Amino acid sequence: MTSGYRRAKTDQSTIAVKAVVKREYAMAIQRIADMTLDDLNKVIEEAIDRRLQGLLKPEDSRTTSELLEALDQLRFTPPEGAKSTLEMLREDRDA
After folding, report:
1. CB count, 10 Å around CB of 20?
2. Which distant-in-sequence residues (6+ apart) come within 8 Å of 86 by Cβ?
3. How far from 36 is each of 27, 41, 50, 70, CA to CA, in Å?
Protein backbone atom coordinates (compact mmCIF):
# COMPACT_ATOMS: atom_id res chain seq x y z
CA MET A 1 0.00 0.00 0.00
CA THR A 2 1.38 3.40 -0.93
CA SER A 3 0.87 6.50 1.12
CA GLY A 4 -0.74 9.65 -0.22
CA TYR A 5 2.57 11.49 0.17
CA ARG A 6 4.40 9.02 -2.05
CA ARG A 7 1.65 9.14 -4.66
CA ALA A 8 1.60 12.97 -4.64
CA LYS A 9 5.37 13.16 -5.02
CA THR A 10 5.28 10.77 -7.97
CA ASP A 11 2.48 12.75 -9.57
CA GLN A 12 4.49 15.98 -9.27
CA SER A 13 7.53 14.33 -10.85
CA THR A 14 5.41 13.01 -13.69
CA ILE A 15 3.87 16.43 -14.25
CA ALA A 16 7.32 18.06 -14.29
CA VAL A 17 8.66 15.59 -16.85
CA LYS A 18 5.57 16.01 -19.01
CA ALA A 19 5.91 19.79 -18.87
CA VAL A 20 9.55 19.65 -19.91
CA VAL A 21 8.80 17.26 -22.79
CA LYS A 22 5.86 19.35 -23.91
CA ARG A 23 7.79 22.59 -23.84
CA GLU A 24 10.97 21.18 -25.36
CA TYR A 25 9.42 19.42 -28.29
CA ALA A 26 6.22 21.45 -28.76
CA MET A 27 4.20 18.35 -29.42
CA ALA A 28 2.03 15.89 -27.57
CA ILE A 29 3.65 14.22 -24.58
CA GLN A 30 5.76 11.27 -25.67
CA ARG A 31 5.89 7.96 -23.93
CA ILE A 32 9.32 7.20 -22.54
CA ALA A 33 9.41 4.00 -24.59
CA ASP A 34 8.99 6.07 -27.77
CA MET A 35 11.88 8.46 -26.99
CA THR A 36 15.37 8.19 -28.35
CA LEU A 37 18.17 7.95 -25.81
CA ASP A 38 19.20 11.54 -26.55
CA ASP A 39 15.63 12.78 -26.03
CA LEU A 40 15.35 10.93 -22.74
CA ASN A 41 18.71 12.29 -21.56
CA LYS A 42 17.56 15.85 -22.34
CA VAL A 43 14.34 15.34 -20.40
CA ILE A 44 16.20 13.94 -17.41
CA GLU A 45 18.80 16.72 -17.45
CA GLU A 46 16.12 19.41 -17.60
CA ALA A 47 14.12 17.81 -14.79
CA ILE A 48 17.25 17.66 -12.61
CA ASP A 49 18.15 21.25 -13.47
CA ARG A 50 14.66 22.43 -12.49
CA ARG A 51 14.84 20.62 -9.17
CA LEU A 52 18.30 21.97 -8.42
CA GLN A 53 17.17 25.50 -9.24
CA GLY A 54 14.29 25.03 -6.81
CA LEU A 55 16.73 23.98 -4.11
CA LEU A 56 19.02 26.93 -4.76
CA LYS A 57 16.31 29.55 -4.39
CA PRO A 58 16.48 31.12 -0.94
CA GLU A 59 13.35 30.46 1.07
CA ASP A 60 14.06 33.30 3.46
CA SER A 61 13.94 36.87 2.22
CA ARG A 62 15.87 38.29 5.20
CA THR A 63 19.24 39.90 4.66
CA THR A 64 22.43 38.38 6.01
CA SER A 65 22.62 40.92 8.83
CA GLU A 66 19.02 40.15 9.85
CA LEU A 67 19.82 36.43 9.88
CA LEU A 68 22.92 36.99 12.01
CA GLU A 69 20.90 39.07 14.48
CA ALA A 70 18.30 36.31 14.71
CA LEU A 71 21.05 33.76 15.35
CA ASP A 72 22.48 35.96 18.12
CA GLN A 73 19.07 36.10 19.78
CA LEU A 74 18.72 32.31 19.62
CA ARG A 75 22.21 31.59 20.93
CA PHE A 76 22.29 29.95 24.35
CA THR A 77 24.34 31.73 26.97
CA PRO A 78 24.93 29.70 30.13
CA PRO A 79 24.14 31.40 33.44
CA GLU A 80 26.92 32.93 35.55
CA GLY A 81 28.87 30.36 37.51
CA ALA A 82 27.83 27.45 35.30
CA LYS A 83 30.45 24.78 34.67
CA SER A 84 32.22 24.83 31.35
CA THR A 85 31.91 21.88 29.00
CA LEU A 86 35.50 20.95 29.79
CA GLU A 87 34.71 20.81 33.51
CA MET A 88 31.62 18.66 32.87
CA LEU A 89 33.62 16.28 30.65
CA ARG A 90 36.32 15.93 33.31
CA GLU A 91 33.68 15.19 35.95
CA ASP A 92 32.15 12.48 33.77
CA ARG A 93 35.56 10.99 33.05
CA ASP A 94 36.62 10.95 36.68
CA ALA A 95 33.30 9.60 37.99
Report:
1. 19
2. none
3. 15, 9, 21, 52
Tally of CB atoms within 10 A around 21? 23
- Would you give the DSSP letter of residue 60? -
Select from 70, 53, 73 the least CA-distant residue to 61.
Answer: 70
Q: Which stretches within the chain are classed as H helix?
A: 4-25, 37-56, 64-74, 85-94
CA 29 – CA 19 distance, rounded (Å): 8
- Whether 43 and 17 have beta carbons less than 8 Å apart is answered as yes
Question: pTM of the full predicted structure?
Answer: 0.33
The sign of the dihedral angle between the CA atoms of 46, 51, 55, 57 is positive
Question: What is the per-residue pLDDT across 15-71, written as a single tens digit (0 to 9) for each?
Answer: 766 666 666 655 445 677 788 889 889 888 988 988 888 777 767 788 889 989 999
